[in-house]
Design the sequence.
């Protein structure tokens, strides 16, 4: 609406949801395009290159946030850790806290600490995930910048389809992501340091233009992702094995299987 009000001779935007008439140069938007590529397409009407690859790391953390994160992480005595974000914007994207707790326990068995991050609404879940385990629950205790600093200090992030996931990607940190309702082709992290777990059910993905309808089968697309699969993916990332051969390194590899223990 602002683009229309200012009456600029050139206005560029996506031709979605009736917005086409608001712009002098509307640009098609497709759910089949990686979101970073979608935004680069907006440069097309200006005659600029629209296929410039996104840098592996394009976010920086202020020094004050890094210092605060280091203070909060002192309890780990310098030990390496995996960051977990158990939150989700909607129930259909949520993986069970019991399974996150099982992942934390198995990581501890492998000598790896766990740090939970998130907002105040994730604090209680973080406590239950870390209960009796080696690590620290920082959910509800950090600002967004401090959360970024914590993620930057960790070895990798385990998360569902979320803004925190994309924050880790922007920081250049490896990720293991759990996808169900969301469109993997558009939203899942790409590159050899990312693994995407997606069961590929016939009804998935079901999110369109940010809206996900209530699931009639209790988000089976997320429930079918097992603890074994997540641990396997984490181990692959931590040992630095090559992934995504069939996508020539352009996308995170989906290593989900139809077996595994809860």
Sequence:
């Amino acid at each position: 609406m602002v683009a229309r009000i200012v009456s600029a001779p050139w206005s560029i935007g996506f031709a979605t949801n009736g917005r086409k008439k608001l712009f002098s140069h509307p640009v098609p938007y497709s759910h089949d395009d990686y979101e970073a590529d979608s935004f680069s397409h907006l440069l097309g009407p200006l005659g600029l290159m629209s296929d410039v690859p996104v840098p592996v790391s394009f976010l920086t953390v202020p020094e004050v946030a890094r210092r605060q994160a280091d203070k909060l992480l002192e309890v780990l005595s310098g030990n390496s850790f995996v960051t977990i974000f158990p939150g989700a914007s909607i129930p259909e994207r949520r993986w069970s806290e019991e399974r996150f707790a099982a992942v934390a326990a198995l990581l501890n068995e492998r000598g790896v600490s766990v740090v939970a991050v998130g907002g105040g609404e994730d604090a209680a879940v973080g406590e239950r995930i870390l209960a009796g385990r080696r690590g620290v629950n920082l959910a509800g205790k950090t600002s967004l910048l401090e959360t970024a600093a914590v993620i930057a200090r960790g070895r990798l992030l385990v998360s569902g389809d979320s803004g925190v996931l994309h924050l880790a990607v922007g920081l250049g940190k490896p990720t293991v992501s759990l996808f169900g309702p969301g469109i993997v082709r558009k939203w899942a992290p790409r590159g050899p340091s990312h693994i995407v777990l997606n069961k590929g059910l016939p009804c998935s993905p079901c999110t369109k233009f940010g809206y996900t309808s209530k699931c009639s089968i209790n988000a089976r697309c997320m429930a079918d992702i097992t603890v074994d699969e997540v641990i396997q993916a984490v181990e692959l990332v931590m040992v630095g094995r090559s992934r995504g051969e069939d996508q020539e390194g352009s996308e995170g590899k989906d290593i989900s299987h139809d077996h595994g223990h809860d």
Remarks:
- Confidence is low (pLDDT under 50) at residues 241-251, 255-262.
- The first helix runs from residue 2 to 5.
- The CA atoms of residues 87 and 122 lie 6 Å apart.
- The longest strand covers residues 81-85.
